Amino acid sequence: MDVIFFILAMLIGGVAAWQGFSWYYLKKLKPPVQDVTTESHILLERIEKVFKVVVAEGYFTEIYDHNTKKDFLGIFKTNSKALVVAKAKVSVGFDFAKMHFHRDHHNRTLVVQQFAEAEILSIDTDYKFYDINQGLLNKFDNEDYTAILVEAKKLMQEKARESDLPKIAQQQIELMMQQLCASAGWQLEQERVLEPLKTVQGITEEPKH
């Protein structure tokens, strides 16, 4: 019996020693672990109070065929073509800071003297280039791609203006204002109709790639 316990003890000790040796050896072989620390500092430049309400959104897909031709000294011409499929989500709404009201307490009526114009508040775009065919001496560079994206975004804005988005936005803002007044026991009176849709200044300056 003592021999059996001795043999078991030797086996257990041998296994433990082997595992310890293996762990130490593998640790030596492993590359050192790098301690990487990344710091980020974000500075808030300014805060603006904005009261803009999105009341309608539209989704558009535009297939834009771009074609440029260059004449080299009248000797020969070369073409560069690209097919762009652009998709966009257009958000239309109103800036309440541009609205003018006055209250008729006697008749419990809120009179809208000047309604804000419907604005394209944002355009979220996604572009894919297909069938890029560049001439030998007329290849696309970064400026060309940027110009193509700007032009495609302008087409999206035109589509938004020509769509039912302005009409839907007008209906939505009128309904919302009427409901707000009704909830307070007031009526809404409008002296001036809504004006055509316009685009917020600056939207087209930096397209997404």
Descriptive account of the structure:
With 209 residues, the chain is of the alpha/beta class. It has one domain. The protein is 33% helix and 35% strand. It has three helices and seven strands; from the N terminus they run H-E-E-E-E-E-H-H-E-E. It has helices spanning 2-29, 142-162, 165-183, and strands at residues 52-72, 76-95, 100-104, 109-114, 119-133, 187-190, 198-199. The strands form two sheets. Strands 1-2-5-7 form a four-stranded mixed sheet. Strand 1 (52-72) and strand 2 form a beta hairpin. It is elongated. The termini are far apart. Residues 1-11 and 200-209 have low confidence and may be disordered.
Produce the secondary structure layout.
Layout (H helix, E strand, L loop, with lengths): L1 H28 L22 E21 L3 E20 L4 E5 L4 E6 L4 E15 L8 H21 L2 H19 L3 E4 L7 E2 L10
Parallel strand pairs: 4-6, 5-7
Antiparallel strand pairs: 1-2, 2-5, 3-4
What is the structure about, briefly put?
This protein has 209 residues and is α/β, with parallel strands linked by helices. It has three helices and seven strands; from the N terminus they run H-E-E-E-E-E-H-H-E-E.
Q: List the uncertain runs.
A: 1-11, 200-209
By helix and strand content, what is the structural category?
A: alpha/beta
Order of helices and strands: HEEEEEHHEE
Overall body shape: elongated
Mean pLDDT across residues: 70
Largest sheet entry: 4 strands, mixed
Helix content bin: 25-40%
Strand percentage lies at: 25-35%
Number of strands: 7
SS summary, helix count: 3
Number of domains: 1
Give the spatial strand order of the biggest sheet. Answer: 1-2-5-7
What assembly state would you assign to the polypeptide chains in this entry? single chain
Supply Rg: 34 Å
Q: State the end-to-end distance.
A: 80 Å
